[in-house]
Amino acid sequence: MVSRPNGLTMLIIRQEQIEVFKRDESNRFKARLRAHVCDIFPLQTALVETAALDEFIDQTIRESRRHGFETEATVQSFVDHAILLGSDFCRNPLYSTLVEPLFDAEIENLIQRHDLLYERAWSYLDATRGPDGANVLRAVARFKAWLAIPRKPRPAFLPELLQDLSLIYPEKQAIHPPAELTLFCDEAAKRARSDGFSEPLGQMTYVIIAFLIGLGFFHDPLVLGAVRDGLAELEKEENASRRTERLTSLAETYLNRVIAAVRSSTTTGSELL
Description:
Layout: E1 2-3, E2 9-10, H1 15-40, H2 42-46, H3 50-66, H4 72-85, H5 110-129, H6 134-148, H7 158-168, H8 170-174, H9 178-194, H10 200-213, H11 221-224, H12 228-236, H13 240-263
Antiparallel strand pairs: 1-2
Helix pairs in contact: 3-4, 4-5, 6-13, 9-10, 10-13, 12-13
């Protein structure tokens, strides 16, 4: 407290106190956001522990702010779309047209940008997932069958991969033009190599998982948190073939847990993946 000549007292707020206020408000916002996603997306959040969910929220808040979204409403919407479309949805070539409103400078109202994205996203998801997510369930079954078939893909596997995508998830494959699918496959294969999958089969598996779950799946806490028990073995594995085997095993585990969660709850299949 500081007394002024007129007898009034002024409260001096130190910088340390301001930082505490900011931190407390940030924690309260994250708590509200955690409660929101658990309420709206019970299937995805039930598969992970609180620590993984908090990591996902922190990661997605940072990403939303890199794109210029600071308010509670816009950050919450960004988080929602990261769950709906997959981690790193803004960089997914499949969604380049879908996310255009989010970065349209002519739309000055940021809430309106998110509302337009939301309309596009649900129209897209309804078309690809089908009634009660039936298309997703069939795609998961086909992918598991794909994993069971021994194969030795050629180093230049893009034509084979595009054909496999059309067989595994035809409803999603058909909605994207060939050029968009090619860009997606190239980007996902590049990420596969960056994440230590050097052989063609590992890269193909990685790309198909990214097609089903989301381009950023390999660094998405909502995915990794659901397979935490097998993740350590993959992270320390250096052999290329065994890395592919462990990736395959984790993908099957994750998808099996998603399907089991759907079957044991009242959640509709439309909320899958």
